[in-house]
Design brief:
Helices cover 80% and strands 5% of the residues. It has helices spanning 2-39, 52-72; strands at 41-42, 48-49. The protein is elongated and about 60 Å long.
């Protein structure tokens, strides 16, 4: 029974880790698009037009956020 409790605890921790990682990655994606909406112009069809440097900065920031998520929730 102790073994079952230990396994259940490990499963719970793993589930929580995966959920935290998923949330963190979703946040990185959301922050990417928020940055682009602030630094670009949104067309009527929903597309965003912006300078290449803004896309590059957003992508760089997103990749840093993703790397941080992975480090935090390994």
């Amino acid at each position: 029974q102790k073994q079952q409790e230990k396994e259940k605890e490990l499963e719970t921790k793993e589930t929580q880790r995966k959920q935290a990682l998923s949330y963190c990655l979703q946040r990185a994606e959301k922050d990417y698009w928020s940055y682009m909406e602030l630094n670009g112009t949104k067309a009527e069809d929903g597309t965003i037009n912006a300078l290449t440097r803004h896309w590059d900065t957003a992508e760089k920031n997103k990749q840093q956020d993703i790397n941080n998520c992975i480090k935090l929730h390994q």
